[in-house]
Design goal:
single chain; 237 residues; alpha/beta; TIM Barrel; 3-stranded mixed β-sheet; 10 helices; 17% strand; binds iron/sulfur cluster
């Protein structure tokens, strides 16, 4: 796979969101390239022709834009991130998420992080001193072989569980995002027990990965029955 990386100057960085009041996406595009990803609409919006997962625009002026924006906007919860993973591999080099975090924490803005990567642990020094921060790992299945089918370029499930545990033990409020609930999620509730403060769950709402379900005879995991079975495991905790 060829990754096309472009450094760009964005026009804005702190955007209103329908999920949380504000969202920051330090990158356009996502190296994790999950097969079902809803954010692939960004290809159309930005005019990229590369396949989803094979391009990333790096918003190198994101910290500068944020420093200016927080002077004029109402302080409210900021979501990192909505249409990219803020801790995708390029973040290890560019540290844009880290710089944005530092700015938000310094100005006491509430933050909610959502990632699939244990790279978030690099920023534990900032997170454990933040007044209002929640850190979530997306953990979509208990079976890493299933993860390899649907999210081949995202970090393994055991690494995500370890990251949650470490964050939680450090006193950071943590959550698991189980969305979409992939096949093989049986037992996930037990694996997450003691590592999280709460769970967010949703079923597969997109059709990009339908072929993977069909090719592997896993259509049962698309049914309401499967979703409620997994949800009951969490209700029982
Ligand atoms: S990590 Fe999130 S944004 Fe990135 S490809 Fe996967 S679902 Fe999409």
């Amino acid at each position: 796979m060829t990754l096309v990386v472009r450094e760009v100057c964005a026009k804005s960085i702190l955007s209103p969101s329908k999920i949380y009041p504000w969202v920051i996406n330090p990158y356009t595009g996502c190296q994790h390239g999950c097969t079902y990803c809803y954010a692939r609409f960004m290809k159309r919006v930005t005019g990229h022709r590369e396949p989803w997962g094979e391009f990333v625009d790096v918003k190198i002026n994101a910290p500068d834009l944020l420093r200016a924006a927080i002077k004029t906007r109402n302080r409210d919860r900021v979501w990192l991130s909505g249409v990219c993973d803020p801790y995708q591999p390029l973040e290890a080099e560019y540290r844009l998420t880290r710089q944005c975090l530092e700015i938000l924490v310094r100005h006491n803005w509430p933050i909610i992080i959502q990632t699939r990567s244990p790279l978030v642990l690099r920023d534990l020094d900032i997170l454990r001193n933040a007044r209002d921060v929640e850190a979530g790992l997306s953990v979509t299945t208990a079976d890493d072989r299933i993860r390899q089918l649907f999210e081949p370029d995202a970090p393994p499930i055991p690494e995500r569980l370890r990251a949650l545990e470490e964050l939680h033990n450090a006193g950071v409020r943590t959550y698991a995002m189980i969305a979409p609930v992939l096949p093989g999620a049986e037992g996930l509730a037990g694996l997450l027990k003691g590592k999280i403060d709460y769970v967010l769950m949703d079923r597969m709402n997109y059709h990009y990965a339908d072929q993977i379900y069909r090719d592997n005879g896993m259509e049962d995991a698309l049914t309401d029955g499967y979703f409620y079975r997994i949800r009951q495991e969490f209700d029982a905790l």
